[in-house]
Every structure is written in C-alpha cells, then in structure tokens.
Design a protein that fits this description.
With 331 residues, the protein is mainly α. Helix content is 82%, strand content 0%. It has a single domain, classed as Na+/H+ antiporter like fold (Up-down Bundle). The chain contains 14 helices and no strands.
C-alpha cells in the first residue's frame, strides 16, 4: 500500500474541507459541478485498468467461498442496507438511497490489500474481483428500481443510460487500453506502472470529492447533522457483516485464509463506483452523493482495524478447525 493509499482518509477529509472553502467563493459552484462527472469517469478508468477479466471464471474453483460471498454481497447486504435505512433514516430519503448505493457495491481494489495484510487468500480474492465488478454494475440499477423508487423520483430509462455512460465507457476504454498496452509493452511493463495508475485514481477521486463539496457545500452547511446520522447504520453494517462472515466460516469449516478473504470482500465497499452513478443520475439530489463520500472516509481505517483483528483470530480459528476435524474422525 502506497503512502497515498495509507493517508487516504486524511486526504479525503482535506478534500472535503477544501471543497467547503471553495464553496464560499462566488462562481466556483457552477464550475465545480461541471468537473464532477469527468473526474469520476477518469477515476473509474484508472480503477478498471488493472482489472483483468481473464480470471472471471476461476473464482468458482472454490465454489463454497464464492457462492457464500455472492449470497452475502448481492442478496443479504441489499436487504441489510434497506433495513438499516428504514430503521435509522426513516425521514431522510436521500440518505437512505446513498446508504443503499454504498452498501450494494462490493469493493474491487482496496480489499485485496487488506486481505493480504490479514494473511488471507489473495489469489481467491483476486478471482472474485471481476465477478464482483460485473455483478454490481448489472445489479445496481435493479437495486435502485426495487428499493429506491418509493423514496425518490426515479426514471429507470434515464438511470440505465447514466449507468451505461458513467460505468461502461470507462470500463470499455480501460479494457481496450489494457489489451493495447500488454501487446505493446508486455504484462511486466503494465504491472510496473500500476502504482502510478493507483495514485492517479485516488487523485481523481479526491479532486471529485472537492468538486462535489464546492458545488453542494451550502446544502451540507445548512444541515450538518444529516451526515452524522449515517455513522450508526454504517458502523452497524461493518459489525454485522464481520460477525456474519466469522460465523459462516465456522459453519462451513473454512480455512483461516478463506475466512479472511470472505470477511474482506463482504466488508469493503466500492464507494467510487456508486459515487460516480449518484453524481450523474442524481445531480439534483446532492445529499445522495455527499452520503457516499462517507464511505472511503470510514472504510479504510475500519478495514485496517479488521485486518489486525483477523490476524488475532487466525490462531484460535485454526485451533477450532482442528477440534472439528477430530470430532469428524470420532463420528
């Protein structure tokens, strides 16, 4: 993990404060609103470039972890997000939509780092990555249609076209660029330059966040309490899914590296993808995009803590598995 990634929460906070400061300058809001979508599309291009779809099917070699992660990420988590929103954000529909969009998009980059820190199965996590990416892009409009139509005005045709432009264009450009660069310079050259691509991705994300707050800072200043209300449901999401992953790992008798992989992929969220869709499809409802900024601000320190907790659990988890195997032999 580069220093840029390690300090990402502080950089996001700096971007937020910078945007709020720029919002006080006349004329900046109009310019900032124009920059948001191009910056987010540039961020997505940099995020998609390292992803190879060649390993799309290899995740099913470990079908137990793969199917479990898919069930948790794409069936259980949307229901959990809806329930947490209904319980804690009943009278704040924009925050509920933002929370839903944050929760239903599994991470496709940072969770690999934290899986490695926790000594989890990074190979399996890498195989899950393209599967998570494709499914979230396909299902995000479906989740919004099912869970959000009663909360905000939603034109499904407009939503679908926005998703296609904001997500599929950067994805297609990234895939074409990857094929061209690999054929021109080779895999080793591309791998050596990916850290620079990661920095470009985070730079675009932080600039987009600054632009969002510069464009919509007045909305947040008028109601600063709204974003504070997100802390409880977001915190409960991480706690509930962490406990769930541990319990599922015990029931399925998974090895510790598989449990660590399952935990990280069910906790880490792909807030940049959701943010790009929100900024484009809900430009008239700025609180949805502002909600999604909370994701990376909280996620990185939480995942750093989770990776250390998992390391502490590793020895006890191994001991429990030995007991299970002994019971099986006796039975």
């Amino acid at each position: 993990m580069t220093w840029f990634e390690r300090f990402q929460p502080f950089l996001i906070l700096t971007a937020v404060l910078l945007g709020l400061g720029l919002a006080q300058i006349a004329g900046v809001s109009a310019v900032a609103s124009i920059l948001i979508t191009p910056l987010l599309m540039g961020m997505l291009y940099a995020a998609f470039l390292p992803i190879s779809l060649r390993h799309f099917g290899s995740a099913f070699r470990n079908y137990r972890v793969t199917l479990t992660s898919l069930i948790i990420n794409f069936l259980w988590t949307p229901l959990l997000a809806w329930g947490l929103g209904a319980l804690f954000l009943a009278n704040a529909p924009d925050l509920r939509v933002g929370l839903l969009m944050l929760m239903v998009t599994p991470c496709t980059d940072w969770y690999l780092v934290f899986t490695g820190i926790a000594k989890g199965n990074v190979g399996l996590a890498t195989a899950l990555l393209p599967l998570n990416l494709v499914l979230q892009m396909v299902l995000l409009p479906v989740y919004l249609a099912v869970f959000a139509q009663s909360l905000v005005s939603l034109n499904l045709w407009v939503l679908g076209s926005k998703v296609a432009i904001v997500l599929l264009v950067p994805l297609a450009l990234a895939m074409l660029s990857r094929v061209f660069l690999v054929r021109w310079q080779g895999n080793a050259w591309l791998a050596g330059h990916l850290p620079k691509v990661a920095i470009a991705q985070l730079l675009c994300l932080n600039l987009a966040i600054a632009a969002i707050f510069a464009a919509e800072g007045a909305t947040l200043i008028q109601r600063p309490d709204l974003l504070l209300r997100l802390l409880v449901p977001i915190g409960l999401f991480f706690i509930i899914n962490f406990v769930l992953a541990q319990q599922v790992g015990r029931v399925l008798k998974l090895a510790y590296p598989e449990v660590a992989c399952l935990t990280c992929t069910t906790l880490a969220r792909n807030s940049p993808v959701a943010l790009a869709v929100a900024a484009s499809a809900f430009s008239d409802r700025p609180l949805i995009a502002l909600t999604l900024v909370m994701g990376p601000l909280l996620e990185l320190p939480i995942l750093a803590l989770v990776s250390q907790i998992l390391l502490r659990f590793s020895s006890s988890h191994s001991s429990q598995l030995e007991v299970f195997h002994e019971d099986d032999k006796v039975g």
